[in-house]
Amino acid sequence: MTNDDRFQSLYRKYYKRMVRFYVLSFRVTEEDAEELTQDAFFRFLEAMDEYRGDAEWGYLETIARNVAYNRIRSQKTAKRGAETVDIHDRNAIPEPAAPSEPDYAQREEAAMRSKHLRDAIAGLPNGSRECIQLWLNEFTYDEIAKFLKITVDAVKSRLRDAKKILRVRLGDANALPEVEE
Q1: CA distance 141 to 180
Q2: How many domains does the chain have?
Q3: What is the sign, positive or negative, of the torsion defined by CA atoms of 46, 51, 53, 54?
Q4: Residue 86: predicted pLDDT
Q5: Are 146 and 122 in contact (CB under 8 A)?
Q6: Helix segments in 27-103, DSSP class H
Q7: Which residues contact 141 (CB under 8 A, 6 or more apart)?
């Protein structure tokens, strides 16, 4: 079976399930759920070479969650960073600064660290994995607790355990950001 055939088969098999997943898990409208589903399947298509063919829904659900987390985080960031300016003030909008991009070696090193971290996170137990993913996506302990329907103390405990495991697996005490509440 070619990648294209596999993709088509999984798309037909899981499209409606993923839409329901978004509606029920993230409480979005049907239209938003369909848009998120399209984004998730696009990400899946991009990652087809990494997919080994097992745990179909589990793999798709992980991609779907990450797409939703990214959407939520971008919405929070957009709201937080919005600046109010007078529409008639021509000097209110500054010229954008030239971006300072890291060189190729720095980008490659960052990509490798990110991949090692993703691989290590994938091996965590479900509860710890969900907590650490939300935490890394800048959700607060309270937000994580509400989303996962657990106590804040449970969130802290799961994060503590997940961080300990990840530091050992990655062999780096500074592998994770230390932002505590």
Answers
A1: 9
A2: 2
A3: negative
A4: 62
A5: no
A6: 30-46, 56-81
A7: 152, 155, 156, 159, 181
pLDDT in tens, 36-86: 999 999 998 888 877 777 788 888 898 999 999 888 888 777 666 556 666
Judge whether 134 lies within some domain.
yes
**Cβ atoms of residues 141 and 152 within 8 Å:** yes
- ∠ at Cα 59 (13, 19), nearest 5°? 50
The verdict on residue 141 lying in a domain is yes
Q: What is the CATH number of the domain that holds 157?
A: 1.10.10.10
Please report which confidence band the pLDDT of residue 177 belongs to, taking 50, 70 and 90 as the band edges.
low
| Domain annotation covers residue 86 | no
What digits encode the pLDDT tens for the residues 75-130?
777 666 556 666 666 666 666 666 666 677 777 877 787 788 888 888 888 888 88
Distance of CA 134 to CAs 8, 22, 43, 80, 159, Å?
30, 16, 19, 18, 10
